[in-house]
Design brief:
heterotetramer; A alpha/beta (418); B alpha+beta (199); C alpha+beta (96); D alpha+beta (1010); A: 418 residues; FAD/NAD(P)-binding domain; D-Amino Acid Oxidase, Chain A, domain 2; 29% helix; D: 1010 residues; Ubiquitin-like (UB roll); seven-stranded mixed sheet; six-stranded mixed sheet
């Protein structure tokens, strides 16, 4: 398959763009595969890509019930960062960030990874202390972090509310300069193309309807496109993990919740960084197309509906105005919802399951997008080696039962609060 | 120091609620009238309906309604249902209402004095319903929210108990003391377009 | 807005409530601290896609806990009552 | 006042809804013009002959006014200036007002000479998705992005505060009717007559909908007469609320409609005290969607030039605004709308030079009328090319059949400055599909119509593909009556449907695109705003982006500010053709709210600035302010941080001095602090002690009346939730205090336990946080001060020991006194009813005057409690167990309590977990910052193993003369006496410190019990 480059672009332009090939094939499912991954979002595709690329396992199928990237991959606010405090998260997300830094090159597909800096604002001394602890932990883990005081924040993002009228005065902030955004759809397409080029079968419009079990193993997956045998089976269906697991009688420490996302009308460059509000759940960045992309808090109740409600919209917009008053007359263009796997400690679960050849990749809460390459990388390792990588050893399922929680938000077993 | 003058209550709105006319000046007068009722005695009772009914006959001279959201007592005192087996009783300050009720109720009843925990704002005027509709999601249509019923709801993001005193309309709004300034400011701000007389 | 029929206050928008969560979790009072029932109670969820029994606290209203049966896929509210009430699936839903 | 030439060369001398007696001056791109009241900016520009109004998103192609409504893809302008500026505003929806100023967007240096138009020359490289295939090399995307971002975007915004205000309003209705066209008006009238509470919402300045734009009649009179009479009748009904200039932008759960009312947008500025916009949230029992339909363009080469316009829009400009959208017109439509347009435009005095009809046969009456006027009709033909650059100069037409066969057809040039095109109408199913509604494809009109819905909505009239006026009226009447009846409102006998006079129309022909002339690189635009051409759709298809969602995301089809109102179906039709599938099988993308973009300010309403969130004030708030307090927020409450004394000016040094002064006052004399913010819960009932026993980790069965006890509670997951003292003030009566931060969560925790899990317990809880003002008087002189305040109370150690509680009065003020201490000093807390708070506080200040009493704030409190190793939210931070915090010994083994089971898990009971310790710098002077991380060796390269962190810190304990800190250290209790490094790499700091017990001042507690 042809490499993408400025030269291929010119060559094709001069021949009327008639020679581009499909970005990925549209194969019929084979009777069986060494590994079947359920879920054609970023995580499932990344897993398949790294299985083929790093572990040489190419007889792999990715099953997607709808269209690639149609779940949370194509619905999120595209923020990429590794500014975590707790070691298990910090090391894992940093690996992911490092993979992001080479992803466009690795995939030969521009995923528009833009390292424009992620700034978390602090609004009290206590919050500054907590950010300092997080930033210090990051530094000790080899992750970039800078603690800004109020003056430095003002210099970097002068449009925040520094007035006396501000309900939430800005004390400072924690900056991760290497953080940023990426083009979410491109990630799915680039990974799909990359995996396909290594021989992975990507099968869209293929919904898993059941499983064929034998003892403590799963022999095959029943789908809307027939039964597909599997040597090993991986779930990468965050948002719907609870639903899929229930078909196997598995109960997980996960609830599905809806998280809304928002975009404004397109504007010329207006906001150059990713900034999160510290007083309430709110974050803002500007897409390359020009839309301001907003995110906020969950709607707070269990939901599989990909849409949210007005009170949360009000809440998010109110927080946005409190952070950047000058967005008042700009207009909200679209809002939508994604279904989050909210785990009971707010951290993901990647590892083995109680079923021998089933591997779980779930519980992403709202941090899934930035984890995409890292998640695929460690999940591929876990599936290939039947053993977690050191980077996801702590993210195991039994940590809840054993009391080794990874609770960044420190809100406990209330999934909606993470 | 027992010789100090008898203490005066200081309203949570002192210095904030300033009498006068604010905002627009419609030819037919302000559309909103806003004032503070007080000082009040406010007591919460948790008890069985029969216990309260029996005690109320003696202590209050009126019986509570057993129906949710209903109010009883047109003058003093007023009994507002605020939950299953729970009522709020309010009257202009005079007697020790809490002690009076405690004495009249069986041991099993819980009596909690909230005279200082609540600020009561009286809202009236021809635009009062519109003002409420700005800050609260309940149906305030006169057919839906009738006189002598009350609602516990969210008003400008504050927990509030709204007592509909008459269809004119007149509302008494009970809000937690620490939120009173916020609520008053939101009500006043929302009332400016109608003209607001603060008394 | 979800409209929840609070047994005391009547129908109210969900912004007056605080979501508590799964109402099928029964506190295993009396079970030994080592009993797995505790782990199940605190951490595990059926998380159904469809009708879900759940608790909402009417925190800006009467402060009573309301048990609600709600479809998590459609957000339709199928019934509400007090925590001890049995709330059955409407016939139409069972058939679906 | 803006003055201009009163020319308006394209204005028709009579007719229309405009007020010719009210000329309005306005400015566009620096030039002055005159329009009339009743104009939109678009109609006024057209009246003045302004045809070029903007540049397209990607190729910067010149664009004109394309529509007359919310679907406008092209005519986006930058409206107003300064704080009121609004980029990306559709000229077709801006009501003209005197003094209006607007600028064109996305061009440099000006509209006519846009240098970015070079993109158009490079268009063969800038095809769909080109950026995914390049920009991957050095120096990296962030470099290229800088230029891409500048080129992208549409309008420009500046960071200037918005001077206007916004409101929010709630509504409740039996029936909400959305859209006040013929169907909506008829439905609202029927429903309103039954007495049902009806909201009728319309996005325009006046009701009437499409009737305003067409030459229709009802009962033999102009249709607008009927509309006006219906509106008058509705306005007389008290049960009907008519909201004009109000867009229903979203359909939400619970049949809730979100709408935005543009209260003042048609004015230069809002009137005093009036808001700019009002955001409505309307709860409906039933919703009638009379949202009409949107005309879609035909897709052909050069279909985007200024002068190409939707046929229905050309009619609207002629009929409603009395404006000729051009002087000489060609019409190209695949339905009888072409003939309707020809008649209306000819009536408006426009030279109609031809109707190009791709159909051959099957037309209705209208064609005969057009033919009778001598207008040229060309059947079986299509427009294949347009001419002109900044404005249309003419079109080439050709035989469609020849074109489809791939042969080069003969073309014919027709000079014209207006090309009115109509590709059929798509019902506005947006609101229907915001919820679960799934539109279905109707081949008869080649459009999606509403499908099954789980909500209580019903679409009527054009919104469900019933396009004739008679159908709309009949649909509205039936829906209004039936819906009201369904809700139990009595309906009378059915009224007759008003008579209409509509000609029989011919069939509709599906035409997704006109094939390009052989050998020509056609620029046939599907999405005009985002410059998505038919060739982009085909390219995406050939690369495998075949799902409609992939198509949308790869090409940006329908991603513009118009959300693809005119483009989506054409794009999907072309994709279906390319895939050789039926469009119904290809599907459609999901419409997302809002229907049209909504100002962010409208969602916030009045909740902005300092009202963005409530703040709570303590009863002594004003006293603090009047006495030099610097206030900070703590969990919504405003609390004194420290107090400046008269004559001191705010500075870092003054602050430090104040904090030291206050700390020393407490240790050496006395201090008073406002602790009203602590949560307070009244607990009554026969099982109150049992309840406390279950929620706290320690035992409560033995607490005597008149005594207080310290308690710690856990969450169900075994992590510490909160701490505080609870006092027994009666046989079955307790008074619990919580921390400020956790007051709400603890109250809810108790209520849920009682109501859900332990309904058998006889316990009642009530929040009394607001009832009591509370003040702590601490320090060696506190006993003397208390004795002065309460002369009748014996404060001796024997009579009033530590943890004693008394109910008494303070000169007529009822008071509760608790001998408890957070500072570690001899201390008392006095609680009085809140309205007496200031009076009591002032008496304390007065009584303490001779005893060195000073008010102290949060900072001094922090130092005092760190000296004593007392924990706060910095330590009870949601991640630590009771054991970690040093409360392991308090955990009763004789009873069960919330959290005990989960606290027993292996990872929670691990002795190597972090434990609370004190930390003191080895050099006795270097500050240990909170947020430092504890490590064994500061020189270890990353990743560095972490031993814990510094949770709280005082840069100086004035009592000890050195900095002190608290931290959580792995295995900390075993490491007392050892050294550890507190590192702060963010500031390149590392402090070696000694691990101590948490308590570093008065370890024996002698002062407390003194």
């Amino acid at each position: 398959m042809a490499e993408y480059s400025v030269f291929s672009l010119v060559r094709n332009a001069l021949t009327g763009h008639k020679n581009w090939q499909r970005a990925w094939r549209d194969p019929e499912p084979k009777p069986s595969y060494d590994v079947v991954i359920v879920g054609g979002g970023g995580h499932g595709l990344a897993t398949a890509f790294y299985l083929a690329k790093v572990h040489g396992i190419r007889n792999v199928a990715v099953l997607e019930k709808g269209w690639l990237g149609g779940g949370n991959t194509g619905r999120n606010t595209t923020i990429v960062r590794s500014n975590y405090m707790l070691d298990d998260n910090s090391h894992f997300y940093e690996k992911s960030l490092q993979l992001w830094e080479q992803l466009s090159h690795e995939l030969n597909f521009n995923v528009m990874f833009s390292q424009r800096g992620v700034l978390n604002l602090a609004h009290s001394d206590g919050q500054m202390d907590r950010f300092a602890r997080r930033g210090n932990s990051m530094r000790l883990n080899g992750v970039d972090a800078e603690l800004l005081d109020r003056r430095q924040v003002m210099k970097m993002v002068p449009h925040l509310d520094f007035s006396d009228e501000a309900r939430f005065p800005i004390y400072g902030g924690l900056l991760q300069p290497r953080g940023g955004t990426a083009r979410h759809d491109a990630v799915a397409w680039g990974l799909a193309r990359g995996a396909d080029r290594l021989g992975v079968d990507i099968i869209q419009n293929c919904e898993v309807t059941g499983f064929r079990r034998s003892g403590n193993r799963i022999e095959a997956v029943e789908t809307s496109r027939g039964t597909i045998g599997c040597g090993k089976l991986g779930f990468a269906v965050a948002g719907n993990t609870g639903h899929l697991a229930s078909k196997l009688g598995l109960k997980l420490p996960i609830e599905s919740h809806v998280l809304q996302a928002f975009v404004s009308e397109p504007l010329k460059p207006f906001f150059d960084h990713v900034v999160t509000f510290g007083a309430e759940h709110f974050y803002l960045s500007q897409s390359d197309k020009g839309g301001l992309v907003f995110g906020g808090d969950l709607d707070m109740y269990n939901s599989y509906a990909q849409r949210g409600n007005l009170p949360t919209i009000d809440h998010v917009m109110r927080a946005g105005l409190a952070m950047v008053p000058s967005i008042s007359r700009l207009r909200l263009l679209r809002h939508w919802g994604g279904v989050m796997d909210m785990s009971m400690d707010g951290s993901p679960i990647i590892g083995k399951s109680p079923i021998d050849n089933l591997y779980l990749n779930c519980g992403w809460c709202y941090g899934g997008f930035k984890a995409t390459p890292g998640s695929g990388w460690v999940f591929a390792h876990t599936i290939a080696e039947d053993e977690p990588h050191a980077l996801n050893a702590g993210l195991r399922l039994d940590r809840f039962e054993r009391g080794h929680l990874i609770d960044e938000e420190a809100t406990g077993a209330v999934p909606g609060k993470h | 120091m027992a010789d100090l003058a008898s203490p005066q209550r200081r309203s949570a709105l002192e210095g904030v609620l300033v009498p006068g006319d604010f905002g627009a000046t419609p030819f037919n007068g302000p559309g909103i009238l806003l004032s503070e009722r007080g000082p009040l005695s406010v007591v919460q009772i948790e008890a069985g309906t029969e216990d309260l009914t029996a005690a109320a006959g003696n202590a209050l001279g009126i019986a509570p309604s057993g129906m949710p959201n209903e109010a009883a007592g047109t003058g003093r005192p007023r009994i507002l249902g605020t939950g299953t087996g729970r009522w709020l009783i309010s009257e202009p300050e005079g007697r020790d209402l809490a002690a009076h009720l405690r004495a009249s109720l069986p041991e099993s009843a819980a009596v909690t004095g909230l005279s200082h925990a609540r600020v009561c704002l009286r809202l009236s005027g021809r635009d009062a319903r519109t003002l409420l509709a700005k800050g609260c999601g309940i149906d305030i249509h006169p057919d839906a929210f009738r006189p002598d019923t009350s609602r516990m709801t969210s008003l400008f993001h504050c927990a509030a108990l709204i007592d509909c005193r008459s269809a004119e309309p007149v509302y008494d709004i009970y809000v937690h003391r620490s939120y009173a300034v916020h609520l008053f400011e939101m009500l006043l701000d929302g009332a400016l377009e109608f003209g607001c007389r603060v008394a | 807005m979800l409209y929840i029929d609070c047994p005391y206050c009547g129908s109210r928008g969900h912004e007056e409530f605080t979501y508590i969560g799964d109402a099928t979790k029964k506190r295993p009072d009396g079970a030994e601290t080592s009993d797995p029932a505790w782990f199940d109670y605190v951490y595990l969820r059926d998380n159904p896609r469809g009708p879900h029994l759940e608790l909402w606290h009417h925190s800006l209203g009467c402060r009573e806990v309301v048990k609600v049966l709600r479809n998590t896929l459609t957000h339709e509210i199928l019934g509400a009552g007090r925590p001890g009430d049995k709330i059955a699936l409407p016939d139409a839903e069972t058939e679906r | 006042m803006i003055r201009g030439k009163e020319q308006q060369p394209f204005r028709i001398s009579s007719g229309g809804e405009i007020e010719r007696t009210q000329p309005l001056g306005f400015r566009f791109d620096g030039k002055n013009y005159i329009g009339y009241q009743g104009d939109t900016l678009a109609s006024a520009l057209l009246a003045n002959g302004v045809r070029l109004v903007g540049r397209s998103f990607k190729y910067h192609r010149p664009r004109g006014i394309y529509s007359a409504g919310p679907e406008e893809p092209n005519a986006l302008v930058h409206l107003r200036s300064g704080g009121r500026q609004e980029p990306n505003t559709r000229a077709t929806q801006i009501e003209l007002f005197a003094g209006l100023e607007a600028k064109s967007q996305n061009r440099w240096p000006n509209l006519k000479l846009d240098l970015m138009g070079v993109n158009d020359l490079a268009s063969r490289f800038l095809v769909a998705g080109f950026y995914y295939k390049t920009f991957m090399g050095l120096p990296g995307w962030h470099f290229y992005e800088h230029f891409i971002r500048k080129a992208a975007g549409m309008g420009a915004a500046e960071h200037i505060p918005d001077p206007d205000s916004y409101d929010k309003m709630h509504g409740h209705a039996d029936i909400v009717v959305i859209g006040a066209g013929p169907a909506g008006l008829a439905a609202a009238l029927q429903a309103g007559e039954t007495g049902a509470r009806v909201f009728l919402i319309d996005e325009n300045d006046r009701p009437g909908g499409r009737l305003r734009a067409e030459q229709e009649s009802i009962d033999g009179r102009p249709a607008m007469d009927w509309a006006n009479e219906t509106v008058a009748a509705l306005q007389d009904m008290e049960n009907v609320t008519l909201l004009t200039r109000t867009t229903a932008f979203g359909y939400y759960d619970g049949d809730t409609i979100g709408a935005v009312e543009r209260v003042s947008d048609h004015l230069l500025a809002p009137a005093p005290y009036k808001v700019r916009q009002r955001r409505w949230l309307i709860h409906a029992k039933r919703v009638l969607l009379a949202t009409g339909a949107t005309e879609r363009p035909l897709v052909f080469d050069g279909n985007d030039r200024p002068g190409v316009m939707l046929a229905g829009a050309a009619r609207a400009y002629a009929t409603r605004f009395a404006v000729q959208a051009g002087k000489s017109a060609v019409i190209f439509a695949n339905s009888d709308d072409g003939y309707r347009t020809a008649l209306d435009l000819a009536y408006a005095g426009i030279d109609v030079r031809g109707v190009i009809d791709p159909r051959t046969g099957g037309q209705g009456e209208l064609k005969d009328r057009v033919a009778a006027r001598g207008i040229d009709i060309v059947e079986g033909a299509a427009v294949v090319r347009t001419h002109g650059y900044l404005g249309l100069a003419g079109v080439d037409i050709a035989d469609l059949e020849t074109l489809r066969s791939g042969r080069m057809p003969e073309t014919r040039f027709i000079p014209c400055d207006l090309l009115a095109t109509g590709g059929g109408w798509s019902p506005n199913v947006h609101l229907h599909s915001h919820q679960s509604g799934r539109p279905v494809f109707d081949p008869a009109i080649a459009a999606f119509v509403p499908g099954a819905s789980r909500m209580n909505d019903r679409s009527i009239g054009a919104a469900r593909g019933r396009f004739s006026l008679a159908e709309c009226l009949a649909d509205g009447i039936a829906a209004g009556r039936e819906t009201a009846q369904g809700l139990g409102f009595p309906v009378g006998s059915s009224p007759a449907t008003p008579a209409t006079d509509e000609p029989a129309t011919g069939s509709f022909m599906t035409l997704w695109q006109v094939p390009a002339l052989p050998g020509r690189k056609a620029r046939s635009f599907v999405d005009l705003q985002d410059d998505v051409a038919a060739s982009d759709v085909k390219l995406a298809e050939s690369e495998g982006y075949v799902s409609v969602e992939h198509l949308k995301r790869y090409t940006t089809l329908g991603m513009g500010t118009d959300q693809g109102k005119t483009s989506n179906i054409n794009g999907h039709g072309i994709l279906a053709e390319a895939r050789g599938m039926d469009i119904a099988a290809v599907g459609t993308t999901t419409f997302r709210p809002p229907y049209t973009p909504v100002a962010i300010g409208a969602f916030a309403g009045r909740e902005r600035g300092r009202h963005a969130h409530p703040v709570r004030r303590t009863p002594m708030h004003d006293w603090h302010l009047a006495n030099g307090a610097k206030m900070i927020e703590a969990g919504l409450w405003m609390r004194p941080q420290y107090y400046l004394q008269p004559g001191e000016t705010p500075s870092r040094a003054a602050m430090d001095e104040a904090i030291i002064r206050e700390t020393l006052a407490v240790r050496n004399a006395a201090g008073i602090s406002d602790v009203s913010t602590l949560g307070k819960i009244d607990i009554q009932g026969a099982d109150a002690a049992e309840f406390l026993n279950r929620v706290y980790i320690n035992g409560w069965k033995t607490l005597a009346i008149g005594k207080a006890r310290y308690g710690v509670m856990l969450r169900e997951d075994g992590i510490a939730l909160d701490d505080g003292t609870t006092s027994r003030i009666g046989e079955n009566h307790y008074y619990m205090t919580t921390t400020t931060a956790e007051a709400g969560p603890v109250m809810q925790h108790l209520e849920v336990l009682l109501q859900v899990h332990w309904p058998d317990l006889d316990v009642k809880v009530a929040s009394v946080t607001d009832e009591w003002a509370a003040m702590a008087i601490a320090g060696p002189n506190s006993r003397a001060i208390l004795s002065a305040l309460f002369p009748n109370t014996d404060f001796s150690n024997d009579a009033f020991p530590f943890m004693g509680v008394r109910e008494t009065d303070l000169g007529g003020i009822p008071a509760r006194i608790f001998r408890i201490s957070f500072s570690g000093e001899l201390a008392y807390e006095i609680a009085v009813p809140a309205d007496y708070g200031t009076a009591a506080w002032e008496r304390c200040i007065e009584a303490g005057a001779g005893h060195g009493l000073l008010p102290y704030g949060m900072e001094a409190l922090g130092i005092l409690r760190i000296e004593k190793g007392h924990v706060t939210v910095s330590e009870i931070d949601g991640r630590h167990t009771a054991g970690d915090l040093g409360f392991g010994g308090m955990m009763s083994t004789k009873k069960r309590f919330v959290g005990d089971a989960m606290a027993a898990r292996e990872g929670m009971a691990d002795p190597s977990r972090p434990a609370l310790v004190g930390l003191t710098p080895l050099d006795g002077k270097t500050r240990i910052r909170a947020g430092s991380v504890l490590v064994a060796d500061p020189k270890t390269p990353p990743p560095v193993p972490k031993l814990g962190h510094v949770s709280s810190s005082a840069y100086l304990s004035p009592n000890l003369g050195r900095p002190i800190s608290l931290g959580m250290l792995k295995g900390g209790r075993e490491r007392i006496g050892e050294t550890v490094w507190a590192v702060f790499p963010l500031r390149n700091e590392a402090v070696e410190c000694r691990v101590t017990a948490p308590v570093v001042y008065d370890e024996e507690g002698a002062r407390l019990h003194g």
